[in-house]
Amino acid sequence: MKTNYRLPFDILGIPIKLNVSFLIFLPVLAWVIGRQIDVYIEILGLGIDSTAITQGPNAFLVGLFAAISLFAGVTTHELGHSIFAMRYGVKIESITLYVLGGVAQLEEIPTRPGEEAKMALAGPITSFILGGIFWLLLTFLDPGQAVPRFMLGFLFYVNVALGIFNLIPALPLDGGRILRSLLSLKTSHYRATEISTRISKFLAVAMGIYGLLVFNLFLIVIAFFIYLGVNSEFQEMVLNKALEGLKTSDLMSKEVITVSPDTSISDLKELMMKKHHLGYPVVEDGEIMGIVTLKDMKKTDNPEEPVKTILTPKVIAIDENDSASEAFHKMNQNGLGRLIVTDESGQMVGIITRTDLMHAIKVVTRLPGAETT
Question: Based on the domain organization, do 110 and 182 belong to the same domain?
Fold first, then answer.
């Protein structure tokens, strides 16, 4: 099932994606905001009459606009990170919006002492600047303009809140990244991640317990988000550490089993049973036409149908000189179990699978002297 949907435009050359959770819960968020308009007016001391805003469908429409504007602020927050990261030559793969916020997918996280802290700070600073702009606009707006005043007040509130929230010293939030970067001034990046992980888990558990005691569902959800996020962060660090220094060419299989476009489904099934591989490049006259996998076989019930009718024509490849960790991330981002490996001329020289990578990780982490948690 497809979980992320790319928007038809990029921002600063960065693809923007919407997670299915965002699409499902956006109307719910709009409804929640619409129901709490009076609360926001009181918190912000706007001194406006909410009657015109909450009449009929207006509350939901204002809530929907506010929800969309909120995620526009989240996107701008992530762009703040991205612009700073690009100054260090880091490629930004994409920005994905989830129901709980946004994530900028970086090709790599700067690991030199202090660099990650600067990049992490860029996000909250961007949010504070946005909040300041909306506050200034609010001060110059006619008090009689109820809807515009509510929108500007709401955007001031959520952007400042977003900046403050992200400064909590827990991974994967910006505050956690700042903490890790400062710790790495005195110890290794790996050790700094270990310490930050423990602190983050402690804060997540404490937040979750407090949320249960005061019956605050939002705090419980955030605690759950932080706990899952920090686990993912540490696992990625272990993976990168294990694959450090390894190239794709070090782990790939050079003898690639291929099939022709006219190979029947029944023959492909027999090949899979014999060779224990679930995906094969489809090659004709030395040219890769696509790749066929067990998933593709579900497209037909005819065992004599040729694979050329069911293959996936889009082949995602990786250069033989790219790092093994890049191969792993590329598989994860695209939901793949294998990648075609090519040389500088674009010719296929091998294939690397998720199994190859996991085997390498197991071997490296079990070697004497390997760092473990």
Answer: no
